[in-house]
Write a structure and sequence with these properties.
The chain is α/β, with parallel strands linked by helices and about 375 residues long. The strands form three sheets. Strands 3, 5, 6, 9, 10, 17 and 18 form a seven-stranded mixed β-sheet that branches. A six-stranded parallel β-sheet has the order 13-12-11-14-15-16, sandwiched between helices. A five-stranded mixed beta barrel has the order 1-2-7-8-4. The radius of gyration is 21 Å and the shape is globular. The protein starts with 9 loop residues before the first strand and ends with a strand.
Length: about 375
């Protein structure tokens, strides 16, 4: 099918934030037609990552309001911008929340999760035209899109730098998780923590991201894999995904890890809690052995300047490592196709982790349910 030109603004509905803290409001918005290197996508599914909820709570602040959140998503291409080879109307697509230009220092070194285009993620503007926008209110007010995506909308205009083509037989409801949750969690274990066969690994926070960190650590060969979460439902799910033990608190997990390591502690600990605090990092550092690694995956509040209450001597004398992890240190253009094949072969569990789907109009309720511990991953289903 040949690309279909679009010359007029496209009306759609979206969940919009007018400020943080605040609540998503369903509004009518207008989309510009896709330009060169852009796609108009009809959304089918969007994952409800807690990172988007941080804008509702005020823990994260957007560069511009009004602002459309949603950075996990999958859908069907409805129009292709001029001068955009390789894409056709009807293509199925999943988004990578971090775009990759393929030209910057980081992309050229294979570290596409650190692509320089990432500077636009919270600004809401486009990548290519000096801060332009593709979404507007009916009065002409520009609307930002998180990560240049804004998947909490029935339709969106995105750059092909953020798009990865999918085979049409793949279920988009599950595939949308590949855009953030899967790689962020899996990569935090495999790439950032460098879990090895025989390791004692702690995953602190067993929700949407932690469930994939658990799967990644199990795949990498962790012998003792300890999940930590105060919610019993999530602990039970963690055990079904490969965790060998589950506890409600990091203190219990740390004591158990020491009991299995002659008092040394875990080889690595991965932080996937909902809202990161300095005390979480400190507790994880205390739980690992000398020369162990703590991976920080969770998002901390933008206004949190409390620091990490750790004695610096613990780093030098115990040779411990604190490792940040953006998108699991993944290369999405290589890793997402790999994850798809693992899913096809039954070696990556996605289906059961979509706990419930919601219509767009129930997005506030969906996040309330997630905050209450009722969902592993909630998904907005648009059709």
């Amino acid at each position: 099918m040949s690309p279909a030109p679009v010359s007029e603004a496209i009306a759609t509905r979206a969940a919009v934030l007018t400020g943080s803290p605040g609540a998503f409001e369903i509004m009518d918005v207008l989309l510009d037609p896709p330009g060169p290197g852009e796609l108009l996508v009809r959304m089918v599914a969007a994952g409800l990552c807690r990172s988007d909820d941080h804008f509702q709570t005020g823990d994260s602040i957007a560069g511009r309001y009004p602002f459309i959140c949603g950075h996990e998503g999958a859908g069907v291409v409805e129009a292709v911008g001029p001068g955009t080879p390789g894409w056709e109307v009807g293509d199925h697509v999943v988004f990578s929340f971090i775009p990759s230009c393929g030209r910057c220092r980081w992309c050229s070194r294979g570290m596409t999760n650190l692509c320089d285009l990432g500077r636009y993620l919270m600004l809401g503007s486009r990548f290519a035209d000096g801060g332009g926008y593709r979404v507007h209110l009916e009065d002409g007010t520009d609307v930002g899109q998180i990560c240049g995506l804004g998947t909490f909308a029935e339709r969106t205009v995105v750059s092909i730098d953020s798009a990865i083509k999918l085979d049409p037989d793949l279920p988009l409801e599950e595939m949308c998780l590949l855009g953030c949750a899967v790689g962020t969690g899996w990569g935090s274990a495999v790439n950032a923590a460098e879990v090895r066969p025989g390791d004692v690994t702690i995953v602190m926070g067993a929700g949407g991201i932690g469930s994939f960190a658990i799967q990644g650590a199990a795949h990498a060969g962790a012998l003792t894999l300890i999940a930590v979460d105060p919610v019993e439902f999530k602990r039970e799910t963690a055990l079904s995904l490969g965790a060998t033990h589950a506890f409600a608190s990091i203190g219990e997990a740390a004591d158990f890890a020491r009991s299995r390591t002659n008092g040394q502690g875990a080889d690595n600990a991965i932080l996937c809690v909902d809202v990161l605090r300095g005390e979480h990092v400190a507790a994880a550092l205390s739980a690992i052995r000398k020369a162990g690694t703590v991976v920080v995956t969770s998002v901390a509040p933008a206004h949190d300047d409390g620091g990490i209450p750790v004695n610096p001597r613990e780093f030098s004398h115990m040779q411990k490592r604190l490792q940040g992890s953006m998108f699991g240190m993944c290369n999405p253009r290589a890793d997402i196709p790999m994850q798809i094949e693992m899913y096809r072969e039954g070696r990556l569990e996605l289906d059961s982790l979509v706990t419930r789907t919601y219509p767009l109009d129930q997005i506030v309720e969906a996040y309330a349910d997630t905050a209450a511990g009722k969902n592993m991953r909630a998904v907005i289903r648009f059709e």
